[in-house]
Protein backbone atom coordinates (compact mmCIF):
# COMPACT_ATOMS: atom_id res chain seq x y z
CA UNK A 1 0.00 0.00 0.00
CA UNK A 2 1.27 3.51 -0.79
CA UNK A 3 0.80 4.63 2.84
CA UNK A 4 3.06 1.80 4.05
CA UNK A 5 5.60 2.64 1.36
CA UNK A 6 5.72 6.23 2.63
CA UNK A 7 6.37 5.06 6.17
CA UNK A 8 9.25 2.91 4.94
CA UNK A 9 10.63 5.82 2.92
CA UNK A 10 10.48 8.07 5.94
CA UNK A 11 12.24 5.55 8.16
CA UNK A 12 15.08 5.12 5.65
CA UNK A 13 15.38 8.90 5.40
CA UNK A 14 15.68 9.03 9.19
CA UNK A 15 18.25 6.21 9.34
CA UNK A 16 20.37 7.78 6.61
CA UNK A 17 20.14 11.19 8.27
CA UNK A 18 21.23 9.75 11.62
CA UNK A 19 24.19 7.89 10.08
CA UNK A 20 25.28 11.02 8.17
CA UNK A 21 24.90 13.19 11.27
CA UNK A 22 27.18 10.85 13.20
CA UNK A 23 29.68 10.87 10.33
CA UNK A 24 29.70 14.66 10.40
CA UNK A 25 30.04 14.75 14.20
CA UNK A 26 32.95 12.31 14.11
CA UNK A 27 34.79 14.01 11.25
CA UNK A 28 34.46 17.20 13.31
CA UNK A 29 36.66 15.54 15.97
CA UNK A 30 39.55 15.39 13.48
CA UNK A 31 41.60 18.60 13.66
CA UNK A 32 41.51 20.33 10.26
CA UNK A 33 45.29 20.18 9.97
CA UNK A 34 45.15 16.40 10.50
CA UNK A 35 42.69 15.56 7.73
CA UNK A 36 45.50 14.70 5.32
CA UNK A 37 47.37 12.60 7.88
CA UNK A 38 47.62 8.81 7.79
CA UNK A 39 47.96 7.83 11.44
CA UNK A 40 47.92 4.17 10.40
CA UNK A 41 50.38 3.52 7.59
CA UNK A 42 48.24 0.64 6.37
CA UNK A 43 45.21 2.87 5.81
CA UNK A 44 44.43 5.99 3.80
CA UNK A 45 44.33 9.49 5.37
CA UNK A 46 41.27 10.70 7.29
CA UNK A 47 40.27 12.76 4.24
CA UNK A 48 39.90 9.58 2.17
CA UNK A 49 36.97 8.49 4.31
CA UNK A 50 35.21 11.80 3.73
CA UNK A 51 35.03 10.82 0.06
CA UNK A 52 34.78 7.07 0.55
CA UNK A 53 31.42 7.17 2.33
CA UNK A 54 29.54 9.02 -0.46
CA UNK A 55 31.43 7.22 -3.26
CA UNK A 56 30.46 3.89 -1.74
CA UNK A 57 26.84 5.02 -1.35
CA UNK A 58 26.57 6.09 -4.98
CA UNK A 59 28.45 3.09 -6.36
CA UNK A 60 26.12 0.73 -4.50
CA UNK A 61 22.78 2.51 -4.83
CA UNK A 62 23.03 4.68 -7.93
CA UNK A 63 25.37 2.77 -10.18
CA UNK A 64 24.88 -0.68 -8.63
CA UNK A 65 21.21 -1.29 -8.00
CA UNK A 66 19.58 1.50 -10.02
CA UNK A 67 21.97 1.25 -12.99
CA UNK A 68 22.44 5.03 -13.15
CA UNK A 69 25.50 6.88 -14.37
CA UNK A 70 28.39 8.23 -12.30
CA UNK A 71 27.96 11.02 -9.78
CA UNK A 72 31.49 12.30 -10.53
CA UNK A 73 33.38 9.65 -12.44
CA UNK A 74 36.79 10.61 -11.01
CA UNK A 75 35.67 10.63 -7.34
CA UNK A 76 33.43 7.56 -7.70
CA UNK A 77 36.58 5.62 -8.63
CA UNK A 78 39.20 7.40 -6.52
CA UNK A 79 37.24 6.86 -3.30
CA UNK A 80 35.75 3.48 -4.15
CA UNK A 81 37.78 1.27 -1.82
CA UNK A 82 40.01 1.51 1.21
CA UNK A 83 43.30 -0.33 1.33
CA UNK A 84 44.14 -3.39 3.41
CA UNK A 85 47.74 -4.24 2.52
CA UNK A 86 49.74 -6.80 4.49
CA UNK A 87 52.70 -4.47 5.15
CA UNK A 88 53.88 -0.90 5.00
CA UNK A 89 55.59 -1.39 1.63
CA UNK A 90 52.27 -2.45 0.19
CA UNK A 91 50.66 0.56 1.81
CA UNK A 92 53.21 2.92 0.26
CA UNK A 93 52.63 1.39 -3.16
CA UNK A 94 48.86 1.70 -2.80
CA UNK A 95 48.90 5.23 -1.42
CA UNK A 96 49.05 8.60 -3.10
CA UNK A 97 50.39 11.88 -1.83
CA UNK A 98 47.86 14.31 -3.19
CA UNK A 99 44.14 14.16 -2.44
CA UNK A 100 41.40 16.48 -3.69
CA UNK A 101 40.65 19.62 -1.66
CA UNK A 102 38.33 19.00 1.28
CA UNK A 103 35.76 21.54 0.04
CA UNK A 104 35.44 19.66 -3.24
CA UNK A 105 34.95 16.36 -1.44
CA UNK A 106 32.29 17.90 0.78
CA UNK A 107 30.45 19.23 -2.28
CA UNK A 108 30.56 15.71 -3.76
CA UNK A 109 29.31 14.23 -0.50
CA UNK A 110 26.36 16.61 -0.37
CA UNK A 111 25.48 15.93 -4.00
CA UNK A 112 25.44 12.19 -3.29
CA UNK A 113 23.34 12.64 -0.17
CA UNK A 114 20.71 14.65 -2.07
CA UNK A 115 20.63 12.09 -4.88
CA UNK A 116 20.32 9.15 -2.48
CA UNK A 117 17.40 10.76 -0.66
CA UNK A 118 15.68 11.52 -3.97
CA UNK A 119 16.10 7.91 -5.10
CA UNK A 120 14.71 6.13 -2.05
CA UNK A 121 11.33 5.52 -3.74
CA UNK A 122 13.09 4.10 -6.82
CA UNK A 123 15.13 1.74 -4.66
CA UNK A 124 12.09 0.53 -2.75
CA UNK A 125 10.33 -0.17 -6.05
CA UNK A 126 13.06 -2.70 -6.94
CA UNK A 127 11.24 -5.60 -5.38
CA UNK A 128 12.74 -8.09 -7.85
CA UNK A 129 16.34 -7.27 -6.92
CA UNK A 130 18.10 -9.07 -4.05
CA UNK A 131 19.54 -5.90 -2.54
CA UNK A 132 16.78 -3.60 -3.77
CA UNK A 133 14.02 -5.62 -2.12
CA UNK A 134 13.11 -4.26 1.30
CA UNK A 135 15.66 -1.51 0.77
CA UNK A 136 18.53 -3.84 1.66
CA UNK A 137 20.93 -1.72 -0.38
CA UNK A 138 20.02 1.30 1.76
CA UNK A 139 20.67 -0.72 4.88
CA UNK A 140 23.99 -1.85 3.42
CA UNK A 141 25.04 1.74 2.83
CA UNK A 142 23.89 2.78 6.32
CA UNK A 143 25.86 -0.06 7.94
CA UNK A 144 28.92 0.69 5.83
CA UNK A 145 28.78 4.27 7.12
CA UNK A 146 28.53 2.96 10.72
CA UNK A 147 31.48 0.58 10.23
CA UNK A 148 33.66 3.46 9.19
CA UNK A 149 32.58 5.42 12.25
CA UNK A 150 34.59 2.83 14.13
CA UNK A 151 37.44 3.03 11.59
CA UNK A 152 37.62 6.78 12.22
CA UNK A 153 37.73 6.24 15.97
CA UNK A 154 40.63 3.79 15.91
CA UNK A 155 42.49 6.02 13.49
CA UNK A 156 41.89 8.92 15.89
CA UNK A 157 43.15 6.83 18.80
CA UNK A 158 46.38 6.24 16.91
CA UNK A 159 46.54 9.96 16.11
CA UNK A 160 45.71 10.85 19.71
CA UNK A 161 44.63 14.43 19.12
CA UNK A 162 40.87 14.32 18.70
CA UNK A 163 39.03 17.52 19.52
CA UNK A 164 37.00 17.15 22.67
CA UNK A 165 33.32 17.32 21.77
CA UNK A 166 31.16 19.57 23.91
CA UNK A 167 29.98 17.78 27.04
CA UNK A 168 32.25 14.75 26.55
CA UNK A 169 32.14 12.81 29.80
CA UNK A 170 35.38 12.11 31.65
CA UNK A 171 36.78 8.63 31.14
CA UNK A 172 35.66 6.04 33.62
CA UNK A 173 38.89 4.53 34.88
CA UNK A 174 39.89 2.03 37.51
CA UNK A 175 41.31 -1.41 38.10
CA UNK A 176 38.28 -3.32 36.80
CA UNK A 177 37.23 -6.73 38.03
CA UNK A 178 39.36 -9.86 37.66
CA UNK A 179 38.05 -12.66 35.44
CA UNK A 180 36.74 -15.87 36.98
CA UNK A 181 36.41 -19.22 35.21
CA UNK A 182 32.94 -20.15 33.96
CA UNK A 183 31.89 -23.57 32.70
CA UNK A 184 29.92 -23.72 29.47
CA UNK A 185 28.47 -27.18 28.88
CA UNK A 186 28.60 -28.92 25.51
CA UNK A 187 26.00 -27.77 23.01
CA UNK A 188 25.19 -27.11 19.38
CA UNK A 189 25.85 -23.71 17.83
CA UNK A 190 24.21 -22.60 14.61
CA UNK A 191 26.01 -19.81 12.77
CA UNK A 192 24.23 -18.03 9.94
CA UNK A 193 20.80 -16.51 9.40
CA UNK A 194 17.99 -17.28 6.98
CA UNK A 195 18.06 -14.57 4.29
CA UNK A 196 14.37 -13.78 4.56
CA UNK A 197 14.31 -13.88 8.37
CA UNK A 198 16.31 -10.70 9.00
CA UNK A 199 15.78 -7.25 7.42
CA UNK A 200 19.42 -7.04 6.37
CA UNK A 201 22.66 -8.94 6.64
CA UNK A 202 26.03 -8.88 4.87
CA UNK A 203 26.86 -11.74 2.50
CA UNK A 204 28.94 -13.63 5.13
CA UNK A 205 25.96 -13.86 7.53
CA UNK A 206 24.10 -16.28 5.27
CA UNK A 207 24.62 -19.94 4.71
CA UNK A 208 24.60 -22.17 7.74
CA UNK A 209 27.15 -23.90 9.93
CA UNK A 210 26.06 -26.28 12.70
CA UNK A 211 28.84 -26.93 15.14
CA UNK A 212 28.83 -29.25 18.15
CA UNK A 213 30.91 -27.47 20.74
CA UNK A 214 32.39 -29.60 23.55
CA UNK A 215 32.15 -28.17 27.08
CA UNK A 216 34.81 -25.60 27.91
CA UNK A 217 35.92 -23.20 30.63
CA UNK A 218 36.05 -19.52 29.70
CA UNK A 219 37.05 -16.42 31.63
CA UNK A 220 34.05 -14.37 32.76
CA UNK A 221 35.73 -11.14 31.60
CA UNK A 222 38.36 -9.99 29.10
CA UNK A 223 42.04 -9.65 29.92
CA UNK A 224 42.79 -6.16 31.30
CA UNK A 225 45.67 -3.81 30.52
CA UNK A 226 46.96 -4.50 34.02
CA UNK A 227 46.88 -8.29 33.49
CA UNK A 228 48.65 -7.88 30.18
CA UNK A 229 51.34 -5.67 31.73
CA UNK A 230 52.19 -8.45 34.19
CA UNK A 231 52.65 -10.79 31.21
CA UNK A 232 54.96 -8.30 29.48
CA UNK A 233 57.04 -7.93 32.61
CA UNK A 234 57.46 -11.70 32.82
CA UNK A 235 58.84 -11.87 29.27
CA UNK A 236 62.50 -11.86 28.21
CA UNK A 237 63.73 -8.44 27.10
CA UNK A 238 64.06 -9.63 23.50
CA UNK A 239 60.44 -10.78 23.24
CA UNK A 240 58.89 -7.71 24.78
CA UNK A 241 58.86 -5.29 21.82
CA UNK A 242 56.72 -7.53 19.60
CA UNK A 243 54.32 -8.25 22.45
CA UNK A 244 53.82 -4.64 23.59
CA UNK A 245 50.33 -3.37 22.73
CA UNK A 246 50.17 -0.52 20.24
CA UNK A 247 48.21 1.45 22.87
CA UNK A 248 50.97 1.33 25.53
CA UNK A 249 53.14 4.45 25.35
CA UNK A 250 55.68 6.23 27.53
CA UNK A 251 54.42 9.61 28.60
CA UNK A 252 56.11 12.01 31.02
CA UNK A 253 58.35 9.21 32.30
CA UNK A 254 55.46 6.88 33.10
CA UNK A 255 53.44 4.27 31.26
CA UNK A 256 50.28 5.55 29.58
CA UNK A 257 47.53 4.17 27.34
CA UNK A 258 46.26 5.74 24.13
CA UNK A 259 42.77 7.18 23.79
CA UNK A 260 41.29 9.26 20.99
CA UNK A 261 42.06 12.39 23.06
CA UNK A 262 45.65 11.39 23.78
CA UNK A 263 47.31 9.13 26.35
CA UNK A 264 45.91 8.67 29.87
CA UNK A 265 47.91 7.41 32.82
CA UNK A 266 48.11 3.65 33.18
CA UNK A 267 46.15 3.79 36.46
CA UNK A 268 43.12 5.17 34.60
CA UNK A 269 43.28 2.47 31.92
CA UNK A 270 44.56 -0.51 33.89
CA UNK A 271 41.10 -2.06 34.16
CA UNK A 272 40.11 -1.53 30.52
CA UNK A 273 40.30 -4.60 28.29
CA UNK A 274 43.79 -4.90 26.78
CA UNK A 275 43.73 -3.84 23.12
CA UNK A 276 46.13 -6.14 21.30
CA UNK A 277 46.65 -7.90 17.97
CA UNK A 278 45.38 -11.44 17.51
CA UNK A 279 48.95 -12.71 17.69
CA UNK A 280 49.60 -10.92 20.99
CA UNK A 281 46.32 -12.22 22.37
CA UNK A 282 47.30 -15.76 21.48
CA UNK A 283 50.71 -15.41 23.14
CA UNK A 284 49.13 -14.22 26.40
CA UNK A 285 46.54 -17.02 26.41
CA UNK A 286 49.25 -19.65 25.95
CA UNK A 287 51.35 -18.08 28.73
CA UNK A 288 48.33 -18.46 31.00
CA UNK A 289 48.08 -22.14 30.08
CA UNK A 290 45.04 -21.59 27.90
CA UNK A 291 44.12 -20.58 24.38
CA UNK A 292 41.84 -18.17 22.50
CA UNK A 293 38.18 -19.06 22.08
CA UNK A 294 36.85 -20.24 18.73
CA UNK A 295 34.08 -18.25 17.07
CA UNK A 296 31.62 -21.05 17.90
CA UNK A 297 32.63 -21.05 21.58
CA UNK A 298 32.07 -17.30 21.96
CA UNK A 299 28.69 -17.59 20.22
CA UNK A 300 27.75 -20.47 22.51
CA UNK A 301 28.89 -18.53 25.60
CA UNK A 302 26.99 -15.43 24.43
CA UNK A 303 23.69 -16.69 23.05
CA UNK A 304 23.29 -20.25 24.37
CA UNK A 305 21.11 -21.28 27.28
CA UNK A 306 21.54 -24.33 29.55
CA UNK A 307 18.10 -25.53 28.37
CA UNK A 308 19.28 -25.55 24.75
CA UNK A 309 17.51 -22.29 23.89
CA UNK A 310 19.08 -19.43 21.98
CA UNK A 311 18.99 -15.74 22.89
CA UNK A 312 19.06 -12.66 20.67
CA UNK A 313 21.49 -10.93 23.05
CA UNK A 314 23.66 -12.29 25.89
CA UNK A 315 21.28 -10.82 28.50
CA UNK A 316 18.11 -12.13 26.87
CA UNK A 317 15.90 -10.74 24.15
CA UNK A 318 15.58 -7.06 25.11
CA UNK A 319 17.31 -4.33 23.11
CA UNK A 320 20.60 -3.13 24.55
CA UNK A 321 20.66 -0.48 27.24
CA UNK A 322 23.63 1.32 28.77
CA UNK A 323 23.62 -1.12 31.71
CA UNK A 324 24.17 -4.07 29.33
CA UNK A 325 27.48 -3.02 27.91
CA UNK A 326 29.85 -0.43 26.49
CA UNK A 327 28.69 -0.19 22.85
CA UNK A 328 26.93 2.30 20.59
CA UNK A 329 29.08 5.35 21.35
CA UNK A 330 27.93 5.63 24.93
CA UNK A 331 31.44 6.64 25.92
CA UNK A 332 34.64 7.66 24.17
CA UNK A 333 36.72 4.79 25.61
CA UNK A 334 36.34 1.31 27.06
CA UNK A 335 35.08 0.91 30.63
CA UNK A 336 36.78 -0.98 33.45
CA UNK A 337 35.93 -4.68 33.13
CA UNK A 338 33.02 -5.80 35.29
CA UNK A 339 31.10 -2.51 34.90
CA UNK A 340 28.16 -4.17 33.14
CA UNK A 341 27.08 -7.24 35.12
CA UNK A 342 23.53 -6.87 33.74
CA UNK A 343 24.90 -7.84 30.34
CA UNK A 344 26.00 -11.30 31.53
CA UNK A 345 25.02 -14.32 29.43
CA UNK A 346 23.09 -17.37 30.65
CA UNK A 347 26.43 -18.93 31.63
CA UNK A 348 27.55 -15.92 33.65
CA UNK A 349 30.01 -14.70 31.02
CA UNK A 350 30.16 -10.89 30.95
CA UNK A 351 30.98 -8.30 28.29
CA UNK A 352 30.62 -10.65 25.36
CA UNK A 353 29.27 -7.70 23.41
CA UNK A 354 30.64 -4.24 24.08
CA UNK A 355 33.87 -2.98 25.64
CA UNK A 356 35.94 -4.32 22.73
CA UNK A 357 35.74 -6.97 20.04
CA UNK A 358 37.34 -10.27 20.99
CA UNK A 359 39.92 -12.16 18.99
CA UNK A 360 39.06 -15.75 18.16
CA UNK A 361 41.28 -18.53 16.84
CA UNK A 362 38.89 -18.99 13.89
CA UNK A 363 40.13 -17.88 10.45
CA UNK A 364 37.51 -15.81 8.66
CA UNK A 365 35.90 -18.18 6.14
CA UNK A 366 32.55 -18.54 4.37
CA UNK A 367 29.73 -20.47 5.99
CA UNK A 368 28.57 -23.50 3.99
CA UNK A 369 26.17 -22.10 1.38
CA UNK A 370 27.88 -18.70 1.16
CA UNK A 371 26.89 -16.53 -1.80
CA UNK A 372 28.58 -13.15 -2.40
CA UNK A 373 26.58 -10.03 -3.33
CA UNK A 374 27.99 -10.57 -6.78
CA UNK A 375 26.46 -7.68 -8.69
CA UNK A 376 27.36 -4.72 -6.49
CA UNK A 377 29.94 -5.90 -3.95
CA UNK A 378 31.51 -9.29 -4.71
CA UNK A 379 34.60 -8.65 -2.57
CA UNK A 380 33.11 -7.46 0.72
CA UNK A 381 33.93 -10.76 2.42
CA UNK A 382 35.43 -12.95 -0.29
CA UNK A 383 38.54 -10.77 -0.58
CA UNK A 384 39.36 -11.67 3.03
CA UNK A 385 38.92 -15.44 2.94
CA UNK A 386 42.69 -15.68 2.71
CA UNK A 387 43.74 -17.33 5.96
CA UNK A 388 45.31 -14.11 7.24
CA UNK A 389 42.17 -12.69 8.84
CA UNK A 390 40.56 -14.02 12.02
CA UNK A 391 36.99 -13.63 13.19
CA UNK A 392 36.51 -11.10 15.97
CA UNK A 393 33.35 -11.35 18.02
CA UNK A 394 31.31 -8.85 20.01
CA UNK A 395 31.41 -5.07 19.74
CA UNK A 396 33.41 -2.11 21.02
CA UNK A 397 32.40 1.24 22.49
CA UNK A 398 32.48 2.58 18.91
CA UNK A 399 30.25 -0.15 17.44
CA UNK A 400 26.70 0.73 16.48
CA UNK A 401 24.10 -1.31 18.31
CA UNK A 402 22.75 -2.62 14.99
CA UNK A 403 25.82 -4.87 14.77
CA UNK A 404 24.80 -6.73 17.92
CA UNK A 405 22.51 -9.01 15.90
CA UNK A 406 23.63 -12.63 16.39
CA UNK A 407 24.38 -13.27 12.71
CA UNK A 408 26.83 -10.37 12.35
CA UNK A 409 30.43 -11.45 11.74
CA UNK A 410 33.51 -9.25 11.84
CA UNK A 411 37.18 -9.93 11.07
CA UNK A 412 40.58 -8.32 11.03
CA UNK A 413 44.08 -9.25 9.96
CA UNK A 414 45.48 -11.10 12.98
CA UNK A 415 48.59 -8.94 13.11
CA UNK A 416 46.50 -5.73 13.16
CA UNK A 417 47.06 -4.00 16.53
CA UNK A 418 45.04 -0.84 15.89
CA UNK A 419 41.46 -2.03 16.26
CA UNK A 420 39.37 -2.06 19.42
CA UNK A 421 39.84 -5.76 19.97
CA UNK A 422 40.71 -7.54 23.18
CA UNK A 423 40.33 -11.20 24.14
CA UNK A 424 39.67 -13.66 26.93
CA UNK A 425 41.24 -16.96 27.88
CA UNK A 426 39.69 -20.40 27.40
CA UNK A 427 40.91 -23.54 29.13
CA UNK A 428 40.43 -27.16 28.16
CA UNK A 429 38.45 -29.28 30.54
CA UNK A 430 38.98 -32.86 31.58
CA UNK A 431 37.39 -35.18 29.00
CA UNK A 432 34.56 -36.10 31.40
CA UNK A 433 33.34 -32.46 31.59
CA UNK A 434 33.54 -31.81 27.87
CA UNK A 435 30.58 -33.99 26.89
C1 LIG B 1 34.07 -5.53 8.33
C2 LIG B 1 35.27 -4.01 9.72
C3 LIG B 1 36.41 -5.72 8.53
O1 LIG B 1 36.20 -1.70 8.08
O2 LIG B 1 37.77 -3.04 7.53
C4 LIG B 1 34.34 -1.25 5.28
C5 LIG B 1 34.31 -3.34 6.70
N1 LIG B 1 34.63 -3.09 4.21
N2 LIG B 1 34.49 -0.97 3.98
C6 LIG B 1 36.58 -2.77 7.64
C7 LIG B 1 34.45 -2.58 5.43
C8 LIG B 1 34.69 -2.08 3.35
C9 LIG B 1 35.58 -3.88 7.27
N3 LIG B 1 35.32 -4.76 8.48
FE1 LIG C 1 34.55 0.96 3.19
TrEMBL record:
<feature type="domain" description="DinB-like">
    <location>
        <begin position="16"/>
        <end position="152"/>
    </location>
</feature>
<dbReference type="InterPro" id="IPR051128">
    <property type="entry name" value="EgtD_Methyltrsf_superfamily"/>
</dbReference>
<dbReference type="Pfam" id="PF12867">
    <property type="entry name" value="DinB_2"/>
</dbReference>
<keyword id="KW-0408">Iron</keyword>
<protein>
    <recommendedName>
        <fullName>Sulfatase-modifying factor enzyme domain-containing protein</fullName>
    </recommendedName>
</protein>
<dbReference type="InterPro" id="IPR016187">
    <property type="entry name" value="CTDL_fold"/>
</dbReference>
<feature type="domain" description="Sulfatase-modifying factor enzyme-like">
    <location>
        <begin position="184"/>
        <end position="427"/>
    </location>
</feature>
<dbReference type="InterPro" id="IPR005532">
    <property type="entry name" value="SUMF_dom"/>
</dbReference>
<dbReference type="InterPro" id="IPR024775">
    <property type="entry name" value="DinB-like"/>
</dbReference>
<dbReference type="Pfam" id="PF03781">
    <property type="entry name" value="FGE-sulfatase"/>
</dbReference>
<comment type="pathway">
    <text>Amino-acid biosynthesis; ergothioneine biosynthesis.</text>
</comment>
<dbReference type="InterPro" id="IPR042095">
    <property type="entry name" value="SUMF_sf"/>
</dbReference>
<keyword id="KW-0560">Oxidoreductase</keyword>
